[in-house]
Amino acid sequence: MAERTIIPFGPQHPVLPEPIHLDLVVEDEKVVEAIPSIGFIHRGLEALVEKRDFQDCVFVAERICGICSFIHGQAYCQGIEEIMGIAVPPRARYLRTIWGELSRIHSHLLWLGLMADSLGFESLFMHSWRVRERVLDVIEATTGGRVIFGSCKVGGVRRDIDAEAMKTLLERVAEVERETREITRVFINDSTVKHRLCGVGALSREDAYLLGCVGPTLRASGVAQDMRKLGYAAFNELSFEPITRSEGDCYARVAVRCDEIFQSADLIRQAAAKIPAGELAVKVTGNPNGEFFTRVEQPRGEVIYYIKGNGAKNLQRFRVRTPTFANIPALVKTLQGCDLADVPVLVLTIDPCISCTER
Amino acid sequence: MSLFNMSGLTLKWLFRRPFTRRYPFEPRKPVAGFRGAVEINLGTCIFCGICSKRCPTQAIEVDRGNKRWTIDRLRCLSCGLCTEVCPKKSLGLNGAHGVPTMTKDREVFQGAQTPPSAPAA
Questions:
Q1: For chain B, how far is it from start to end, CA to CA, in angstroms?
Q2: Are the C-beta atoms of A88 and A282 separated by less than 8 Å?
């Protein structure tokens, strides 16, 4: 029997964009067990929300994550709106949908780049981020910020996209879609990429479900679960089906995310065609008194917001369960029995966002 | 042929201009609609301090007595909340990128001092 060794992986590692630590118990080149530890970048944002005016905390919620920032702000606003019984104007719901999907496109392109980097495919990484830059420009022109949108507020949205800007947005999205197709063709068909991904870290449908996976990790194992199907924002008026694959391996997770980019572009087009004219926000009076769970689909999966107010301007309790946290048990499971050289790829396939996880 | 997907993409970009910008020789122009840094119009400001109370990062300090408005540029998020809550609309966003700094200085804006009233006879 081979001797067991523990190899520390992270928190500072070339492949990791953010700090997570894994103790890898290895026998020769095979990983037998992986013990994760988190807590390197805890910022106490949930406690901060309890000290500030609830309307100003949209900006705090947006800063939980640097990539799915808009959707965090949206989830927070939806929670407060449900407690206070605020009906958001239809135009604001559509605008939230459009920005949420732009956020998903830019997050998936960022992730595809990081994935290519973890495979050692440097030029593909650069091409993915080149396309992502175009999405960021669209976001900047419509919201005023490149990564942190700051366009959502309790009761609606802070900015409008006029007809001219919407036309430009759709042209840009079509351009991004065309360029993304060139890149995803490499991810899906290239033999070197397939060689590194096919059959690696396979997670069965049952395991994915029982370990509580969310988002593309769950859908790549064949479970059609997508929080957008709950019909928040304007999703109940748009037609789409969750994208699933049956293999459950790294290749399936890449393929699901590639397809989701095109799905998001399609959703933006549908929303732009149906967007009604009208008000952007309603006036918010009073303070939240009650509690609510919001479930929203982020690029990485389902995020859960728990918000509790007691009638004061500060919230009493605020709690966030982020998708990466839900996917860590599945990561530990897939790491068992893999080759040491596949660890970076496996860690990247759950799209880890550690800042989100630790808040 | 799977092998030619990437080589096609690479060849296409081999004969194009670089996508990146030669910063700082070619500075980036902010797009229309970009939020940018907070500006104050001292002429209309009444130093009420609402901006300071509502600022999510507590970047703004208002000294009502001395009519002084101070901002910590490195703390400011450019969210624009202060411009929305200002009762006199004295605050605005300039739509330009901030100036790079090496130190954590605060920018102080001094309002016009009212002359001390004449002592009662």
A1: 99
A2: yes
pTM of the model: 0.88
**Tally of CB atoms within 10 A around A119:** 22
Of A137, A182, A190, the CB nearest to B31: A137
Q: How far is A222 from chain B (nearest CA, A)?
A: 26
A217 class by beta-carbon count within 10 Å (0-12 exposed, 13-18 middle, 19+ buried): buried
pLDDT at A326 over 60: yes
Residue B7 CA to residue A25 CA, distance in Å, equals 39
The Cα–Cα gap between A77 and B6 comes to 43
When pLDDT is averaged across residues A193-220 and rounded to a whole number, the result is 89
Nearest to A46 by CA among A308, A287, A294: A308
Amino acid present at B38: V
Q: Cβ contacts of residue A302 below 8 Å, gap of 6+?
A: A214, A215, A225, A227, A295, A296, A323, A326
Residues 6 or more apart in contact with residue B24 via CB below 8 angstroms: none
Task: Please write the tens of the pLDDT for every residue from A129-161.
Answer: 999 999 998 898 888 888 888 888 888 898 888
The 10s digit of each residue's pLDDT in A76-107 is 999 999 998 888 999 999 999 999 999 999 99
Cα torsion A86, A92, A93, A98 to 10°: value is: -150
Is the Cβ pair B35, A185 closer than 8 Å? no
% helix / strand / coil in chain A, to the nearest 5?
50, 15, 35
Pairing relation of β-strands B38-40 and A21-27? unpaired
CB contact under 8 A, A142 and B6: no
Residues of A within 8 A of B84 (CB-CB) are 158
User: How many Cβ atoms are within 10 Å of A146's Cβ, its own excluded?
Assistant: 16
Domain map of chain A by residue range?
A: 4-358
Q: Is A291 exposed, middle or buried (0-12, 13-18, 19+ CB in 10 A)?
A: middle
A123·B19 Cβ contact <8 A: no
The CATH class that applies to domain B32-110 reads alpha beta
Q: Identify the CATH homologous superfamily for domain A4-358.
A: Cytochrome-c3 Hydrogenase, chain B (1.10.645.10)
Among candidate residues A29, A6, A50, the one with its CA nearest the CA of residue A317: A50
Say yes or no for a CB contact (<8 Å) between A190 and B2. yes
Query: Directed axis angle between helix A163-189 and helix A122-143, to 10°?
Result: 170
Amino acid occupying residue A5: T
